[in-house]
Amino acid sequence: MATPRGNTTVRDRHRAIIRRGRPPCHLCDKPIDYALRYPHPHSFEVDHIVPLDRGGADDLDNKAAAHLECNRRKSNKLAEELAAANGPRTFITARTW
C-alpha cells in the first residue's frame, strides 16, 4: 500500500527497516557506514528506486539504501539510466601532433 506524501511516521519506519539490514548502497554496491551522519557524502539515505515523479510508489518495495552522494548523483533517474549515462569511458593516453 502506498503511503501518503509527507507521512513522517511511515517514512521513519521504512528508514529504520532498511537500516536494520545494513545493506550496501544499491547504486554503487559499496558498504555504507551507518554511523556517518548527514551531510557526509557516504552517509545512509533512502532512495526511491523508481522516483516518485516518474510514477514510483512511496512504499517499502520501492525504497533501497544508498550513499548520500550516490543518491544525489542519481537524482530522478532510474539506476539503469544512470549506468548508461556513466557508461564505459574512453581515455586518451597518447597523442600524435
Q: How does the SSE layout of this entry go?
A:
Blueprint: H1 8-21, E1 44-48, E2 63-67, H2 68-74, H3 79-85
Antiparallel strand pairs: 1-2
Word description of this protein:
The chain has 97 residues and is an alpha+beta fold. Helix content is 29%, strand content 10%. The protein is built from 3 helices and 2 strands. It has helices at residues 8-21, 68-74, 79-85, and strands at 44-48, 63-67. Strands 1-2 form a two-stranded antiparallel ribbon. The longest helix has 14 residues, at 8-21. It starts with 7 loop residues before the first helix and ends in a 12-residue tail after the last helix.
Distance between the termini: 63 Å
Largest sheet: 2 strands, antiparallel
Q: In what order do the strands lie side by side in the largest sheet?
A: 1-2
Helix content bin: 25-40%
- Count of separate DSSP helical elements: 3
Radius of gyration: 16 Å
Based on Cα principal axes, name the global outline. globular
β-sheet strand percentage: 5-15%
Structural class: alpha+beta
Task: Give the helices and strands as they follow along the chain.
Answer: HEEHH
Number of strands: 2
Q: What's the overall average pLDDT, rounded?
A: 87
What low-confidence regions span 5 or more consecutive residues with pLDDT below 50? none
